Amino acid sequence: MDHPLLEKRGRLSAYAAIWSLIATVHIVVLAKNQGLPWSLAALDGVLSNATYALLALTFWYASKYITLDKLAFWKVAENHIFASVFTTALWLGAVYLLLTNLFEAPATYVAFVEASLIWRGVVGILFYFLVIAFYYVYIFSENYRAQLKREAKLETMVKEAQLRSLKFQINPHFIFNSLNSINALTMTCPDKAGEMTIKLGDYLRYTLSHNEKQTSTLREEIDSLKLYLDIEKVRFGDRLEYDERVSESCLDMHVPSMILQPIIENAIKHGVYESLEKVEIRFSCEQNGNYLKATVENTFDPEAVSFKGEGIGLRNVRERLEMLYNHVNLLDIDKEANLFRVNLFIPIEEN
C-alpha cells in the first residue's frame, strides 16, 4: 500500500493547506496571547509546523507495520506511546536548534522557547496520535474496499461458474439422446445415421465456438436452433414441423446463449416423442415494452403425454434467467387443450 499523501498531488496539497491553517493559528496565538512580535511569531509558527508536517509524513510507516492484525492491542499502544515520545523529542530538539541558532534571537525569545517546551511537547504528542489515527482510518478504509472488491469478484466468479454449469448440463443431455438415435438408425437407416452424425458434428462445432459467451444475438441463437432442428428432423422426418415468426427488429438484440435449445428440446420430447401424429412447433418473438418476448408453442396429444412439471431443461432456463437478470417470473408456462406454450421475457439491455 503506497503512502496516502504522496501518491496523489491533490492529497498532498490538502495536507499542506491543513498545516498552513495550523501554522496561522499558531502565529496568531503567539502574537495575541503571548505578546511576541509578529515577525518572531511568524517565524516560530512556520518553522515549528513545517518541521512537524515533514516529520508526520514518516508516521505512515509506523501505522503500516504496527497493526492490530499483527500485534496485540497493548503491544500496539506501547509501540505508539514510545514512538510519540521519541518523535516529539526529536521534533522539539530540531525546533529549538532552528529557532535559537538560525538567527540572532533575542534573549527574551530564547527564554520563551525554553519555557514553552513542555506545552509544545504535549501538542506534539497530540499531533502524533491525530496523524496516526488518520493513517489507521485510511488503512482500514482501503482494506475494507479491497475486501469488498475481492468478495464482488468471488461472487461474480461463483455466479459465472453456476451459469456455465447450468448451460453445460444441456449439451450432454442432448448428445446422449442423439447418440442413442444414431445407434438405432445404424441398423434401420444407415444413410440417415450418417447424415445425423454430420449434422451433430456441425451443431457441436457451433456450440463449442459460442460456449464461453454468456449472451449472443437472437439471430445467432436462431442459427443454432436450426442446426439442432436439422438433427431432430433426420430422426422424426415429417412428424416434426417447425414454423418461425420473428420480428426483424428483434434479430440483433442480445439474449442468453443456448437459451432456446432446451425449450425446443422440451417441446420435441413432450410433443413429438409421444405422438404418432404430426407435431407443430412454433417460435415467435417480438418486443413487448422493455422486454423481448420469445414464445415457443407445440401441439401434443393430451391423452398420450403426461406433464409432470418442469424438466431439467426448463428448470435450467428459469434459473439462468433469474441469475443473469436478478429477476423472477421471466419464464411463463401455459398449457391448454392440445397446446403447450413457453414464454420468455428477456430484459432489453443497451449493448
Characterise this structure.
The chain has helices at residues 9-32, 38-57, 59-65, 73-101, 107-115, 117-168, 170-188, 190-209, 218-236, 261-272, 312-325, and strands at residues 215-217, 240-246, 254-256, 279-288, 291-299, 331-336, 339-347. By secondary structure, the protein is α+β, with helices and mostly antiparallel strands. It has 2 domains: 9-161, no CATH class; 170-347, 2-Layer Sandwich (Heat Shock Protein 90), CATH 3.30.565.10. The strands form 2 sheets. Strands 2-4-5-7-6 form a 5-stranded mixed beta sheet. A two-stranded antiparallel sheet has the order 1-3. A hairpin with a 2-residue loop joins strand 6 and strand 7 (339-347). Helix 1 (9-32) runs antiparallel to helix 2 (38-57), helix 6 packs antiparallel against helix 11 (312-325) and helix 9 (218-236) runs parallel beside helix 10. The protein is rod-shaped. The model has no long low-confidence stretch (mean pLDDT 84).
List the helices and strands and how they pair.
Elements: H1 9-32, H2 38-57, H3 59-65, H4 73-101, H5 107-115, H6 117-168, H7 170-188, H8 190-209, E1 215-217, H9 218-236, E2 240-246, E3 254-256, H10 261-272, E4 279-288, E5 291-299, H11 312-325, E6 331-336, E7 339-347
Parallel strand pairs: 2-4
Antiparallel strand pairs: 1-3, 4-5, 5-7, 6-7
Helix pairs in contact: 1-2, 2-4, 3-6, 4-6, 6-11, 7-8, 8-9, 9-10
Strand percentage, roughly? 5-15%
CATH architecture of the largest domain: 2-Layer Sandwich
CATH topology of the largest domain: Heat Shock Protein 90
Give start-end ranges of low-pLDDT stretches. none
Spatial strand arrangement across the major sheet:
2-4-5-7-6
How does the overall form come out from the CA principal axes? rod-shaped
Query: How many angstroms does the end-to-end distance come to?
Result: 36 Å
Question: What about the largest sheet?
Answer: 5 strands, mixed
Radius of gyration: 38 Å
